[in-house]
């Protein structure tokens, strides 16, 4: 193990978002055999315990959002993540080897992504021979899942110079190696391209059911947050590492991801301002809105074994909104309340933020983004940076990363990370 220190405008494609009438949030009774979720902020005074912070959260949930509100909110979220660590350790890096047989937690492993293959890249002869690949592990906390596998691809250079970097995040059941077409394309254009395995995926998994088992364990025990938040902690440690590298410009680090990876990108950017340009793809959604408007089925179906287990534990005959709400409260406290999109998306302002979704995506219904979009637009207007925010809903597209999405993301990064 060694120390880190020495290593070192296109038109918006909007279309009308329909309004659905909200329904009253349900208060759910918990059967006695299911333990109550851990407190949202168990180890310090903040949003659910401190009156001033509670007022700040209320303001974040309304129309008036100030810089001070966003900073307090961000600090509360990071403290919440820190409070759920097994034990913090000094960030360190270990060498790793390339993965020869990546693990995909799918019965039929994916073989090709038209969207990723379409990513713009420089026409360089013998590109593969000119690329440099690095594999390392970052130690982000104690325990088996505290070992973060990192894949970095860049162009070989005789003289080290600081370049923009982009972190790419994979979708559910995939891994960092799946993203190689994107990594190589961006590297050919002068970026340092970085990918990681999220918790219980890739090198952090041992079977086809590792992620599913971790989700169910989180529901049963309430001691981990495998859905989104634990990986967000890793991404805060990752940016610690990237900003210390001699070949990365610390002011130009972007982040993007697909589906689950889009959610990781969204929350990591909310939590850490060092992610300076943000493009979540088919990941941003309103969790509370989906519950209140009976539009949760698409997201639930993507990790259905978890919700089936919760249904049985709660004595329900079918998965319903009450089951959904209890699961989110248990495995990702605050996801459908304080930390939902209407509060966290505006807090990314004024950094450049491009949200890309499918217009017909059942997992990320566009109607659920009406309030986050409105509040984010207001936040960017107040920051005098309205051009830094854009939401694209590609008409007729469900939960799929398309070639258009990849091109829009590429253009956004070039616009904001390559400008002098």
UniProtKB/TrEMBL annotation:
GO biological process: proteolysis
One Pfam family here: Peptidase_S9
UniProt-listed InterPro entries: AB_hydrolase_fold, Peptidase_S9_cat
Listed GO MF terms: serine-type peptidase activity
Peptidase S9 prolyl oligopeptidase catalytic domain: residues covered: 186-399
Superkingdom of the source species: Eukaryota
The protein, known as: Esterase YitV isoform X1
Organism whose genome encodes this protein: Rhodamnia argentea
Gene name for this UniProt entry: LOC115754021
